[in-house]
Structures are given as structure tokens and as C-alpha cells.
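Fill in residues.
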């Protein structure tokens, strides 16, 4: 008797195409057959009962399984549609051909195309980051007196510069300099004070380290001064919402931007945050941020998204985001996740910030397996090892072929 039958869980089209390659199936047939092997579940929310029923009927006609939930209200119906990738694409085309459902059909088609996208690259004048090849490490450099984990340690420019160089030596691909704490309950500071903290550090690093430097700010005035000095990208915790001048400024300098989800502001975000649909609302917020960026002229290929772990979320919210991170792949952008030393780890493990390395490692590994391209961390050396091994596991073929 031969080996016991194997059931292979196919995570993406690359998996099944690799198996088909081994069996000598040509690329022409791979393109036709591979989408039949990948089953996806499509969730659509905030529909009227009538519209939900119409879409469910179309889904059944496309030979997918459709499940309808309605509470009787006019905009509260939900649909769960399950089918192979090719059948869901067929449904999207069918809806796109209908005058009343064309917009939804196009959205579904874009989400399906985006979900399987794997080619992400960031380009700057002096660097290229191939985010498809491996997970990249963003090293945190807080030049603040009050950050939750390392506030005050690197407030002096000389100490900050030395630490940044250490992070690069440990494996950081990007250094993220922040001059204003965004911990829960933190009070905002002026642009002048923020600049006084970050510019001496940026000036001391710009010609000294071989990796791009990101500036963690939501103020256009701060971003412009840093970009003028040579910073390479902007990490905006507000997702371009707090300062209307930020998006046009980034478009002007043609640099990448990280658009993060936040519910509220750092001052009030942890005051009983609630969601009707956690991943749905985060996805919608990020999609609106992408639209805002593109409308301002930012290159769509220079946009990174971040679900904002800890920014207006409970412990359960944060755990759910990491578990369901792959849902954000439908936006077609590289994903950054920052879990390092955060309070949800401390609450689950009952540990202070300085003892959360193992918890951070677990969250980083799970985030990578679920779709993260960049992880933002304090402990670069350890997390670089975690990322390297997790990448090796993630990229291992599902068969045992040489």
C-alpha cells in the first residue's frame, strides 16, 4: 500500500502552480486550472435586504454558495459567498455587466486580483526594497521623553544616532524616527518641538547609514522639513487625516507613505473603542486613505498600509487583526504591522514592556504568516531572526519535491 492520502491546503496560486509544474502541466493549463483549486470566501456587508437577495441569487447562478443574514434594517444585511477563485471572478464579471451592480462587480474583481498579488517593490533615489522577496524590518527610533517602551533613552541626539547605527548593524532595513509619542493618552506637541527632536538626529544619520529613513509624523510641516533634509518616507499614524497638507506634500516629494488606521486620536483612542465590523471598518478606512493619497497625486505603488495595532483597539481587537490580517490583502498594498512590546502582549502574558520580547516574537511570526511585508520593532536583532525563519517556513513548498 502506498502513502496515506494527503490533503494539501492551498494558500495562494503559487502553491498550486508549483505542484502542477512538478506534474509537467504547462503554463497555459496552469493559468486555466489553478484558479479552480483556490477557494475563497467573500464577505459583503452593509447591504439593503433587497440588494443582498439579488446578489445572493447571482452568486447561486454562478455556482457559488451564498449565505444571507439580515436583521430587517435597510442597510444591515450581510452576504457570505464561498467558491473557487474562477467562479468568484465569473460572479464579479456578471455583476459588473449589470447596470445596478456594476460598481460592486468591479470592486470584487479588484479585491480578488489584489488578494493574490505578490510583487511589491518600493523605489527611492538611493534604494530599492523588494518586499516580495522577504519580510523587511523597520527599526524604531523614538527621540521622545514619554514613549511607552523606551521614552527618554534616546532623547539626546548622540545617543539616538549611535542606537540607529546599532539597529542597522542588527539587520534593520528601515529606520523610523519619531519625535512625538503616540501612546494612549499622550498630549500633542508643537511642530517646532518635534522638529527640534528629530532634525539633529536625521542630519547625523542621513549620510551615515545605508538604509532609508522614515519619519513618524502626522504634521506636514514636520514632514516637509525632514524630506527637505533627505528623509526617504513618511509614516503617518492618522492615515493622512490629521493634516490636509500631508498628502499633497508627499506627492510633491514622490516618497512612499505608510497609511495607518486609527480610531480617534492618541488622546482618546483607548476610551472604550467599539466596532460594528472590525476588519470591515479598518479596510474601509485604509481604502479611503489610499483614495485620498492617489487623488493628491501619490504614486499608488508607493503606498503601504498598517492596521494600527493598539490605536483604538482592545486586546481582543488586536488579536483578531493579527489572526485575520490576510483580509487586508484585498487592498493590493504591502502591509506593515507594529506589535512590538505593546500593551496587548503585556495583558495576555501579564508582563511589563521590558519582558515582552517573546510575546513580540510570536506576534511578529503570526503577522508574517498572515501577510505582513514589514514589521516595525524595537528589538531588531531578535526579530530579524524571527522574520528570517518565518519567511523560510512560509516559502517552503507544500510538496516534498527537490
Amino acid at each position: 500500500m502506498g502513502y496515506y492520502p494527503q490533503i494539501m491546503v492551498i494558500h495562494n496560486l503559487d502553491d498550486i502552480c508549483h505542484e502542477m509544474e512538478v506534474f509537467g502541466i504547462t503554463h497555459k493549463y496552469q493559468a486555466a486550472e489553478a484558479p479552480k483549486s483556490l477557494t475563497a470566501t467573500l464577505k459583503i456587508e452593509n447591504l439593503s435586504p433587497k440588494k443582498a437577495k439579488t446578489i445572493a441569487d447571482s452568486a447561486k447562478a454562478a455556482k457559488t454558495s451564498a449565505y444571507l443574514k439580515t436583521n430587517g434594517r435597510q442597510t444591515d444585511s450581510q452576504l457570505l459567498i464561498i467558491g473557487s477563485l474562477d467562479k468568484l471572478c465569473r460572479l464579479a464579471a456578471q455583476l459588473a455587466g449589470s447596470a445596478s451592480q456594476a460598481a460592486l462587480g468591479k470592486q470584487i474583481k479588484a479585491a480578488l486580483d489584489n488578494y493574490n498579488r505578490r510583487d511589491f517593490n518600493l523605489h527611492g533615489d538611493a534604494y530599492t526594497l523588494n518586499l516580495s522577496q522577504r519580510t523587511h524590518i523597520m527599526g524604531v527610533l523614538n527621540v521622545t521623553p514619554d514613549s511607552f517602551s523606551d521614552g527618554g533613552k534616546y532623547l539626546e541626539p548622540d545617543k539616538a544616532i549611535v542606537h540607529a547605527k546599532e539597529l542597522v548593524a542588527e539587520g534593520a532595513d528601515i529606520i523610523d524616527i519619531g519625535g512625538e509619542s503616540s501612546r494612549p493618552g499622550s498630549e500633542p506637541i508643537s511642530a517646532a518641538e518635534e522638529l527640534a527632536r528629530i532634525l539633529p538626529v536625521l542630519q547625523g544619520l542621513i549620510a551615515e547609514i545605508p538604509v532609508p529613513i522614515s519619519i513618524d509624523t502626522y504634521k506636514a510641516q514636520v514632514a516637509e522639513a525632514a524630506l527637505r533634509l533627505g528623509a526617504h518616507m513618511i509614516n503617518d499614524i492618522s492615515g493622512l487625516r490629521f493634516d490636509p497638507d500631508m498628502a499633497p506634500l508627499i506627492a510633491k516629494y514622490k516618497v512612499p507613505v505608510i497609511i495607518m488606521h486609527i480610531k480617534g486620536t492618541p488622546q482618546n483612542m483607548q476610551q472604550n473603542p467599539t466596532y460594528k465590523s472590525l476588519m470591515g471598518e479598518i479596510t474601509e478606512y485604509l481604502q479611503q486613505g489610499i483614495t485620498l493619497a492617489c487623488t493628491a497625486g501619490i504614486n499608488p505603488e508607493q503606498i503601504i498600509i498598517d492596521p494600527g495595532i493598539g490605536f483604538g483597539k482592545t486586546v481582543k481587537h488586536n488579536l483578531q487583526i493579527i489572526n485575520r490580517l490576510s483580509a487586508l490583502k484585498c487592498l493590493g498594498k504591502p502591509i506593515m504591522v507594529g506589535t512590538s512590546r505593546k500593551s496587548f502582549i503585556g495583558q495576555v502574558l501579564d508582563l511589563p514592556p521590558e519582558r515582552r520580547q517573546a510575546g513580540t516574537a510570536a506576534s511578529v511570526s503570526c503577522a508574517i504568516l498572515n501577510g505582513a511585508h514589514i514589521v516595525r520593532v524595537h528589538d531588531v536583532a531578535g526579530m530579524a531572526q524571527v522574520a528570517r525563519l518565518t519567511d523560510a517556513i512560509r516559502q517552503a513548498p507544500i510538496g516534498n519535491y527537490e
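The radius of gyration is 22 Å.
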